[in-house]
Amino acid sequence: MHKILIVDDDSHIRDVISFAVEDAGMKATQAASGDTALASVMANPPDLVILDIGMPGKDGLEVCRTIRRNSDLPILFLTARGDEVDRVVGLEIGGDDYVTKPFSPRELIARVRAILKRTNGPAPVEAAGFSHGQLVLDPDRHRCTFAGAEVHLTSSEFSVLAALMRRPENVLSRAQLLTSVYGNNIHVSDRTLDSHLRNLRQKLAEAGCTKGVRTVHGVGLRLDTCAS
Fold first, then answer.
1. pLDDT of res. 71
2. Contact status, residue 50 vs residue 26, Cβ threshold 8 Å
3. Assessment of whether the complete model's pTM goes beyond 0.70
């Protein structure tokens, strides 16, 4: 049973999400503040965190930054409808996805399931992994390495890279890439994909893979040579 930590300073919202999570067959725990959430993550790590950005005190962005120092734990942000800047920043610092308030519990659970599916890895037929030059992806262990050094990716970044590595010689359109990562049932904006691609490129470059993901203008994206 997946454990979901729900972090929001509004008790009504926490209760609504908890009901939806438990109705979907998962276990829900709650935290009313950023500090409480971090303590809960340390003491009893969940499988995913649903994290409100706009909390008083230690907000969701700060909580995400703290978690990302030591963990690739999946994070789904809750944001106010007009806070586009917060949504973009949330994705850039390592959030996997977001849902805007007011939200549909059904959509929220669909996004939770999509993230957990990516985190748990693809079908067993792909468990052997992929390699492209010195870049190696192990879906079974959710592990990425370049030249033997580990590259720490969030579940969404990992899924973007896996989609490209399944067909390393092909150019994938943005629509194909979004469908490969998120499926057909969830709308994801281009800004979300852009944030994941930017983070992925930065992490690969820091590991020495300076040409990891190439944009073919007017067509889509493909893997490059990943030269060290």
1. 86
2. no
3. no
